[in-house]
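Input sequence (167 aa), recorded before submission:
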Amino acid sequence: MKSWFAAGLATAIVSRSLLHKALIFKFGRDVRALNSGNYRPLLGSYHRDAVLRFADGDHRWAGEHAGRDRIENFLQEFVAAGLQGEVTEAYFGGPPWRMTLLARFDDRALGPDGSVIYHNRTVLLVRTKWGKIIAQEDYYEDTARIGDFDRRLREIEAGRSCGTVVE
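Predicted structure, token format:
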């Protein structure tokens, strides 16, 4: 009886470890695809009724994005802005049917001259149900930077439409 219990416990521990490694691998792969301009692998991780809550403010990403279509718009804006991100830490907890992920996500964007025009640190709180994201909340180190970045993007976009170079 004890050997069956020990074998079951060992299997559970190994399975959980493998699940976490698989999730970290997938999340990293999806972020690399996002950085290269392909948001679709990450979008596929969201449930059709998922909700993404982003920092409020006067910027294009503000507020609640409910449903995969609205999340797709959010990710399209993320890619169009030239944002690049990196997951530096990730923690998982809970069973597969109700898992929670906490991840540190550092992001940045470069201007037309190659200089960094935006950088920030974020903590993502992600709730999943059987592997699909059902809710995500993003907490930024400095939310004012997001508004400043969006204003800078608008200046760059206006400069391009007028034929001037804004650096």
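Checked by second reader. The two ends are 71 Å apart (CA to CA).
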